[in-house]
């Protein structure tokens, strides 16, 4: 499992508070750091989920070590409500893993040349497909909303102009055009291609949609007292978690004029009123932890409630891109 350092591990374990005989879902198995720590913290059982075949292979190794305590399932964490077993807690570590970034052939990193892929599940449209098929306006909206890139329009215009003569198939090619448009250094000091690559990765893997569905699924399957712990690394991800938990922890209200409570009862009680962040020592040892935010809550006995899943307006869905290919 070397190569991946689980972020905020002590804080995650404290929020999860694993107990004997519990069944805990590690919805983003990755390198297995959380799963192994949970199994070591209490005589419980863990079910690991991941859509990345490489992560699934690592999970099967752990299942061979601990066949009675760990089970690996290849699926999206948004489908955790399909688990046919009572669940006591769910932990999600959102975003790309060190394994994926470090493998040039996966196409996640602009620091290494590789195919412009970025698919966590290795199926569906790749980042190259997205770059080839989206219009200038659609690419601009994508970079702006998912990457929060200030130069989204200029970058999209350059990509659409250049792809007429040569398609973008390599990470180095895309990173190069972004650097050419906005210079060697980004306005906030990061690599110029950081936000464009981030936006593409989030879009190609529908990461915000998957997260929102997973939150709803966790609410549906967790019993009263069940715990939900989410670690995110991007402002859009954290905003989705914060909004969801704020809505679900808001109690029904009334007044002296209308003493009857109105609105649905709170389905979660917050463990963390504000996000927990990594310590200075952890950030120094693992720079990936610098943007991590942990939010956690405990399920109440109130019924789960549906929530519409949002999408990015002005940009086609992945299914639409697949059909157009």
UniProtKB/TrEMBL annotation:
Question: Which stretches are annotated as coiled coil?
Answer: none
Biological process according to GO: rRNA base methylation
Catalyzed reactions:
cytidine(1402) in 16S rRNA + S-adenosyl-L-methionine = N(4)-methylcytidine(1402) in 16S rRNA + S-adenosyl-L-homocysteine + H(+)
Query: GO CC annotations?
Result: cytoplasm
Pfam families listed in its UniProt record: Methyltransf_5 (PF01795)
Main site of residence?
Answer: cytoplasm
Q: Report the enzyme's class at the first EC level.
A: transferase
EC number(s) from the headed UniProt entry:
2.1.1.199
Protein function: Specifically methylates the N4 position of cytidine in position 1402 (C1402) of 16S rRNA.
HAMAP family to which the protein is assigned, alphabetical = 16SrRNA_methyltr_H
Task: Give the family this protein belongs to, as stated in its UniProt record.
Answer: Belongs to the methyltransferase superfamily. RsmH family.
Write down what this protein is called.
Answer: Ribosomal RNA small subunit methyltransferase H
This protein's species is Candidatus Phycosocius bacilliformis
Upper classification of the source organism reads: Bacteria, Pseudomonadati, Pseudomonadota, Alphaproteobacteria, Caulobacterales
| Designated gene of the protein | rsmH
């Amino acid at each position: 499992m070397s190569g991946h350092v689980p972020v905020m591990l002590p804080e995650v374990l404290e929020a999860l508070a694993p107990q004997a005989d519990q069944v805990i879902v590690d919805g983003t198995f990755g390198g297995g750091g959380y799963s192994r720590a949970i199994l070591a913290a209490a005589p419980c059982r863990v079910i690991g989920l991941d859509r990345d075949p490489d992560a699934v292979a690592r999970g099967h190794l752990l299942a061979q070590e601990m066949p009675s305590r760990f089970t690996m399932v290849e699926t999206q964490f948004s489908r955790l409500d399909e688990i046919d077993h009572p669940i006591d807690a769910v932990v999600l570590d959102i975003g790309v893993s060190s394994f994926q970034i470090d493998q040039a052939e996966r196409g996640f990193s602009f620091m290494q040349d590789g195919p412009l892929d970025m698919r966590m599940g290795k199926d569906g449209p790749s980042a190259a497909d997205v770059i080839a098929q989206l219009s200038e306006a659609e690419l601009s909206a994508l970079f702006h909303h998912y990457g929060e890139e200030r130069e989204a329009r200029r970058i999209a215009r350059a990509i659409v102009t250049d792809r007429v003569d040569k398609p973008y198939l390599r990470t180095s090619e895309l990173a190069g055009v972004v650097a050419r448009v906005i210079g060697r250094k980004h306005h906030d000091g990061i690599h110029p291609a950081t936000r464009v690559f981030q936006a593409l990765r989030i879009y190609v893997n529908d990461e915000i949609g998957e997260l929102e569905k997973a939150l709803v699924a966790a609410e549906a399957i967790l019993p009263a007292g069940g715990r939900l712990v989410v670690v995110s690394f991007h402002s859009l991800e954290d905003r989705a978690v914060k909004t969801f938990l704020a809505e679900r922890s808001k109690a029904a209200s009334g007044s002296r004029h209308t003493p009857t409570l109105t609105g649905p009862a709170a389905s979660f009680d917050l463990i963390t009123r504000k996000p927990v962040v990594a310590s200075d020592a952890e950030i120094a040892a693992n720079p990936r932890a610098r943007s991590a935010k942990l939010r956690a809550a405990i399920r109440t006995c109130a019924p789960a409630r549906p929530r519409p899943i949002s999408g990015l307006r002005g940009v086609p869905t992945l299914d639409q891109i697949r059909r157009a290919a």
